[in-house]
Write a structure and sequence with these properties.
The protein has 192 residues and is α/β, with parallel strands linked by helices. Helix content is 24%, strand content 21%. The protein has five helices and eleven strands. It has helices spanning 5-24, 27-32, 39-44, 67-72, 142-149, and strands spanning 50-52, 76-82, 89-94, 100-102, 108-110, 121-124, 128-129, 135-136, 154-158, 179-181, 186-188. A seven-stranded mixed beta sheet has the order 3-2-1-6-9-10-11. A two-stranded antiparallel sheet has the order 4-5. A hairpin with a 5-residue loop joins strand 4 (100-102) and strand 5. It starts with a helix and ends with a strand.
Length: 192
């Protein structure tokens, strides 16, 4: 996957916008954001057995805060493990009390205690999104490849509201999200 110059510029703008927002948000509002799973999303998770989260880096929306509510719902929680710099990633089962190992690009993943798991829901980080459900990621293609490997998994983007763009460029391999969840709203795609 080659990177589009427009996407490279958008990523820089999106990172700065997200950083400024997170630095300016009220600390209490930040601590409370993403602590509970909204009812419309919880209903969509009823049949799911395995939900893939991620450990938020820097100023990413903190998906790890969903771990406790997901455990209470009886879900298996998984975290991504970056395998190589070519875009290969799998998902490993994780309990919040488990120790995490350092991975590539500042990521952390569970210690492998069994084979990788197949998520029914993939909650993904992003730099930007638009109302047509396009997702602007970091550019490595890890989540696009994961979405393609698990085509039946519900694709949920987690973001701060400031990460919304009017229109994002999309390449043929960019798979749209089904749901986008921000600290203020849940957006469902037409096929969700």
């Amino acid at each position: 996957m080659s990177d589009d110059p427009d996407k490279t510029a958008l990523r820089a703008i999106a990172r700065e916008r997200r950083r400024a927002f997170v630095q300016s948000i009220d600390p209490l509002a930040h601590r409370l954001a993403f602590k509970a799973i909204p009812s419309p999303l919880a209903r969509r998770l009823t049949e799911a057995q395995t939900v893939a989260l991620y450990m938020g880096l820097d100023d990413e929306a903190p998906a790890q805060r969903f771990a406790a509510p997901l455990q209470a719902m009886g879900k298996v929680i998984a975290l991504p493990r970056v395998i190589d710099r070519l875009g290969t990633m799998d998902f490993l089962a994780w309990l919040p009390e488990d120790r995490l190992l350092p991975g590539l690009y500042g990521t952390h993943h569970p210690e492998p205690s069994g084979p990788p798991v197949a998520p029914d829901v993939i909650i993904a980080p992003l730099l930007g999104f638009d109302r047509t459900m396009n997702r602007l990621g970091q550019g490595g293609g890890y989540y696009d490849r994961a979405f393609a490997r698990f085509p039946d998994a519900l694709r949920v983007g987690l973001a701060w509201s400031v990460q919304e763009h009017d229109v994002l460029p999309a390449d043929p391999w960019d798979l749209p999200l089904d749901i986008i969840l921000t600290e203020v709203e849940l957006i469902e795609g037409p096929d969700a």
